[in-house]
């Protein structure tokens, strides 16, 4: 049963009482299968390019059909990263990697139709990523001028802002974007291996090419003056490019079984910061995910030369378990993992994914994690993940599902142009850049339901204002949803887990 919204004075009292308590554990029942379906459907609302006949998000239409023309190349397709109309290659590649990892790790648990839908979502991105590396010694890293785009409130179908193409040519570096593209293509090759082996081989071959570019010309793409004004401050490389090199190599090792990538991980770990033990995972920082991924090599392949990666993965898991003496992650009073900054649910979904992926590896090898004062089992890691999932789906002080279209109460005014403006199907007349402002400023709910979108999330005190202008809380992103696909697949297959 979903709770109605509590009075403000009650929320203030509840926050005060719980501020010094450990995270709450809930046992509400959720339709994880329904949430899984909707989390995948969301990606259809983010599509750029020519939409297919079986497009289910029917209020969307074709957009970005001239992308790439300034370079005389086809850069149509791919995804808009969030509520705007820009195609940023860095987060798109990470989104793709996480969708593919969801299939690799949890695909066998998905209903056949949802596995098929997930592969379609992956291919919408990989087809585009292949275009970005189709020219020798060049990678296209972005399409669209975000500074101009963000001054407009325009449907993607109407956009008349510059579709500036941002390209990095060798020897200028783009190790971060190229490394993540290599990871995305390599992981996706594994996801397609059984259903489309020819396409899988194409993806793997191009993953090798992308990694060669990343490793040969080392550096951050946003350090390039020609790129900086477009990428920053939106998707600058804030945390360095080194983790993407290791991440790309780790996925190429998984996909190809080539010992050259094993040697790369062994020989470059220290110089590229693998021992930094940074407890974060997201579109810009791959350290925690890298350690979980490589730990599979250690535990299942007896690759003890990579033991330091496993030690770092263990250390990360210990920070997430409240019973551990080394636990130091911050939680909201309602139990949500919290890191300062916007779009906080990206941390909750990526960390939940890592908890479940590591639990699988530990279970297959009959291992636990030694956290000093306590041994943490795979079951315990799954409990931590379920707390996050249930919070997102509605077990929180507001009784609000942060997934649009799931449950009776969810955000109505997400920061998303296409969702908040009338559909071109209902309002075929052109809506110019500034003409959309009346819809942005409206207090009315969005007319088009972006089913499955997960909002940026609440504040540290569990509060959430359902306000279009508060983009840090109300804007959905592809990289919030992508890891949640795998997480929901696990709990949909194990609905009685508690």
UniProtKB/TrEMBL annotation:
The keyword S-adenosyl-L-methionine does not apply. It comes from the Eukaryota. Residues 32-488 form the Glycoside hydrolase family domain. This is Endoglucanase. Belongs to the glycosyl hydrolase 9 (cellulase E) family. PROSITE patterns: GH9_2, GH9_3. It catalyses: Endohydrolysis of (1->4)-beta-D-glucosidic linkages in cellulose, lichenin and cereal beta-D-glucans. One of its GO terms (biological process) is cellulose catabolic process.
